[in-house]
Amino acid sequence: MxxxxxxxxxxxxIFSSAFLLFLVQPLIAKQILPWFGGSxxxxxxCMVFFQVVLLAGYAYSDWVxxxxxxxxxxxxHVGLLLASLAFLPxxxxxxxxxxxxxxxxxxxxxxxxxTIGLPYFLLSTTGPLxxxxxARTPWGAQVYRYFSLSNLASLASLLAYPVLIExxxxxxxxxxGWSWGFGAFxxxxxxxxxxxxxxxxxxxxxxxxxxxxxxxxxxxxxTADYLLWLALPALGSWLLLAITNHITQNVAAIPFLWxxxxxxxxxxxxxxxxxxxxYRRGIFLPGAAAMLLLCAFGLQDSLGSDVKTALPIxxxxxxxxxxxLHGEMARMRPGPSYLTRFYLMLSxxxxxxxxxxxxxxxxxxxxYYELGIGLVLTALLGAVLAGRGxxxxxxxxxxxxxxxxxxxxxxxxxxxxxxxDARGLLRNFYGxxxxxxxxxDDPNDNVRQMYHGxxxxxxxxxxxxxxxxxxxxxxxxxxxxxxIASAPDAPRRVGLIGxxxxxxxxxxxxxxxxxxxxxxxxxxxxxDGEFSFLKDSAARIERVLGxxxxxxxxxxxxxxxxxxxxxxxxxxxxxxxxxxxxxxVYERHLKPDGVVAFxxxxxxxxxxxxxxxxxxxxxxxxxxVHDEPENGALRNTDWVLVARDAKTLARPxxxxxxxxxxxxxxxxxxxxxxxxxxxxxx
Length: 682
Hints:
Number of helices: 20
Strand content: 5-15%
Shape: globular
Oligomer: single chain
Number of domains: 3
Low-confidence stretches: 203-215
Helix content: 40-55%
CATH architecture of the largest domain: 3-Layer(aba) Sandwich
Largest sheet: 8 strands, mixed
CATH superfamily of the largest domain: Vaccinia Virus protein VP39
Strand order of the largest sheet: 7-6-5-8-9-11-10-12
CATH topology of the largest domain: Rossmann fold
């Protein structure tokens, strides 16, 4: 095989491994997302898992290249590749479904390890291992361009999934397709490994000696170098997750918004390691300083919460800051002898940043303060780098410290504002909840509100005379109000999927039973402690903690007159609650003339046609109730009401407001195996 053929073999192996590495992340996360309530935190936990396994893969590559001969490397690696085939196909087993009592974080980590642990580990080893072989070739001076290639493959995979793969294939088809792709990769990687072991048995290729191809001088790194190799990627990973959390939770609950920061993050790796022409310290160092100030200022100003300004600020900020962090990493890249150690430290740093933001922050910080902390740490690291290596640059280091102090000041203002305005501030795996009082010109209009990030989950009037009045999405003229009013006068049994502030309990009468399904225990805590809808209700309130669908699947028929499904207002839509299989579960718990009410009010998604298609596929009837109330306490709403009999939806309370749903061409009924959020974006 000639030099060009060898280069293509190496490039193909690295590209395919990186493409599959990133493709499996949304694929497997989407399989398990329904089991954990559709929480955005599932993505963060998955990302932490992938970073930790990536670290293990890099550690493996560093160990085998330093301790084993090329032939021993080949025997071990080919053996592991063969063993990884036992994990195929990567279809998540139903035995991993949670029952509701498990710690979601540990359960997800265990599930991922048992499902894709070894295949993902083998994919993660490929980049550094193959690059260690590339470093021994005549084109070894370009070895870091292969790292750029791997990040380009990751970016291509990330963008291909929602656009080209998800809309046209079911989850089972995706899993089997990926498994076939992994099998092909395993064959390619095994072939590359065997070829290298046979041609370079002595540890060097026949084409050129190692000494002539060094990508950088083989100088032994100092302790400070190792620390910077660790700190730079740690802060890059930290900022990626922190900015993603901020813009998806605090700025706008827009589906697929998380793709944007991750794409920017990968792009900076591609640019910084493709060549030295992209990163210019004289441009990006002052640019990073400016973006640090702007991003920190936005945390305590409306500039950083209005989607029109916040989105460009934080996406541009992530790009500039990651160009600075990753560009400095690229400037410090070592010679071939320390290549795998460099990647190991890079991966370790990324894992540290991911674990800190994804696992520790939700348990340590009461709100999303990790972004402000990350900005302070980035400024301090910039001070170290700016003043490094020249006594005449001490003033740059001082300027960096001053910049860190400014960022810390803005963070303190953010914390002060939160704690001053908030009555309750809670955070866990499912996100941040905040309750606050809003004062208006007329004291009778003062309200207490509950927010989950940027999404309002209910409000209640503070005036005693109005505290039992329905508010926001739950007025008498809204679809859910009409569905409850149309139910028989006999004691009613109503199911609520999603509690919020508990507003719907205000419709409860003596003898009625309202059964509430809520996955987040802190929502119950705030609904009880900060609002009085539940305690004031004349109905009997029954509580079920855990995922609603899993709970309903395990319960005897509840015979609901009305079942309200109210969980689709955020960016992480719990798709498992709006599929044909879910509808079958709801039907089992309805009375013959019962109604399922789907709250589909959403600025970004048109979910009404999806519900209508599902109802049609099951022989059910559906109408849309669009409400634009004149009462200032109520908001415009869309509810889709579904029933077995068209006569149920013709009752006076519903019939005069219900309208037929316009079905979009190409919108298919969603199932557990197929759904397409991209196809219902407004």
